[in-house]
UniProtKB/TrEMBL annotation:
Domain of life of the native organism: Eukaryota
Protein name: small monomeric GTPase
Known EC number: 3.6.5.2
Keyword ATP-binding: no
Listed GO MF terms: G protein activity; GTP binding
Family per record: Belongs to the small GTPase superfamily. Ras family.
Main EC class the enzyme belongs to: hydrolase
Source organism (scientific name): Caenorhabditis nigoni
Coverage span on the entire protein: 3 to 178 of 244
Catalysis: reaction(s): GTP + H2O = GDP + phosphate + H(+)
UniProt entry keywords in alphabetical sequence: Hydrolase
Length: 176
């Protein structure tokens, strides 16, 4: 009685240096690798079971560039993961800009509410923190997004839990 494999597309977006590649690699392989080519755009996939549903999770580790269509990920993705670096106020402002861009596209997409996850990465660097957890939570709730802090270097649990909650929403939405 194997349920059919369901594909889910997750786009990781955020300012360069915020840790998109590190989070993607950690999520897919469970390993933290120190350095990534910041110009490389990559797709990763992992099969996993969430709520009894077998999923093929595709992650697009995006790189923004002036020459490419910046928003090509917006129609592709079922889930948006907007990442900033808690030690960089600038990356937080950048994340806010992306959340606003996603909101502006909502009318042309299927309902995207509760399909966005705002992530404050590098929570291991507490000494250098520039963005409080409260600020992150507030921005997320303004955009009806989930919120998690995580560290690709040491602890991805909050990230994984929030992502799985979104997967559950999508799965149950499809059934009803
Ligand atoms: P991207 O440009 O958004 O893909 O960012 P990267 O994944 O390339 O990460 C940028 C830099 O931050 C790299 O040197 C990573 O090793 C580092 N980095 C990423 N995530 C973390 C983290 O959670 N903690 C710490 N301490 N460093 C991180
Ligand atoms: Mg990268």
């Amino acid at each position: 009685n194997s349920a059919p494999l369901r594909e889910l597309h997750v786009a990781l977006v955020g300012m360069a240096g915020s840790g998109k590649s590190a989070v993607a690699v950690k999520y897919i392989t469970k390993r933290f690798i120190g350095e990534y080519d910041s110009t490389l755009e990559d797709n990763y996939c992992r099969q996993e079971t969430v709520g009894g549903q077998c999923l093929m999770v595709w992650m697009m580790d995006t790189v923004e560039s002036a020459t490419k269509d910046e928003m090509r990920w917006i129609a592709w993705a079922d889930v948006y993961v907007v990442i900033y670096d808690v030690t960089s106020q600038l990356s937080f402002q950048y994340a806010e800009g992306i959340l606003e861009r996603i909101s502006r596209h909502e009318h042309v997409l299927c309902p995207r509410e509760h399909r966005t996850l705002l992530v404050g990465n590098k929570s291991d660097l507490e000494r250098y923190r520039q963005v409080s957890e409260t600020e992150g939570e507030r921005l997320a709730s303004q955009h009806k997004a989930y919120f998690a802090e995580c560290s690709a270097a040491s602890d991805l649990r909050q990230f994984t839990q929030s992502l799985h909650s979104i997967f559950q929403n999508i799965i149950s939405g499809a059934r009803s």
